[in-house]
Specification:
With 181 residues, this protein is mainly beta. It is built from one helix and twelve strands; from the N terminus they run αββββββββββββ.
């Protein structure tokens, strides 16, 4: 048997195995891109009690409780999160599989802490199921993403703890995206 014929038979065998589901594709992966820095409240003069500031998905900041003073009235850049499988990356099956997204505050990441997360407008895909309710963590499912990146904005409530050092208040969160089975 010639080498060419042997290779053709091997290739045909692999195609048949792939068609019946016995060959395994490369590991599926979603790239999550979130701002490396959280929105900065700017300089805050802390008070004796805990104060909460609401960062809306459009970047406006409002004090919702307490007496701390934010020295700037300017809006902040609300975080925009991007999920991407890579253009024409068919091995990841983004065109077929639903995705679960989880956003979690990082504990002890600074003098301020995120107490509530909210999802803003979603572009490039639709939700699978109900819209997520604001909460200490945010979990929601997406329909198949397709081949183009999708984005959403994050809003959050940030508590400035009593006794915090006056100045820039820092806080952090993580975003994970995984395919649903």
């Amino acid at each position: 048997m010639s080498l060419r014929r042997t290779l053709l038979i091997a290739l045909l065998g692999f195609v048949i195995l792939a068609a019946i589901g016995m060959a395994r594709p490369a590991a599926a992966q979603i790239t999550v891109t979130a701002p490396t820095a959280t929105p900065s409240l700017g300089k805050v003069i802390a008070t004796s009690g805990t104060s909460t500031f609401r960062i809306a998905t459009d970047g406006t900041v409002t004090r919702t409780s307490g007496t701390a003073v934010r020295l700037s009235n300017a809006a902040v850049s609300a975080p925009t999160v991007t999920l991407d499988c890579g253009l024409l990356n068919l091995a990841s099956l983004c065109v077929l599989r639903r995705v679960r997204v989880t956003v979690v505050p990082v504990a002890n990441s600074g003098p301020a802490k995120i107490t509530e997360l909210r999802m803003g407008n979603l572009s490039g895909v639709t939700l699978y199921g109900a819209a997520p309710t604001p909460g200490a963590t945010l979990t929601f499912d997406l329909n198949a993403m397709g081949i183009l990146p999708i984005t959403f904005k994050l809003g959050m409530d940030v508590a400035v703890q009593s006794g915090s050092v006056t100045g820039d208040q820092t806080f952090a969160y993580t975003v994970n995206a995984d395919f649903l089975p």
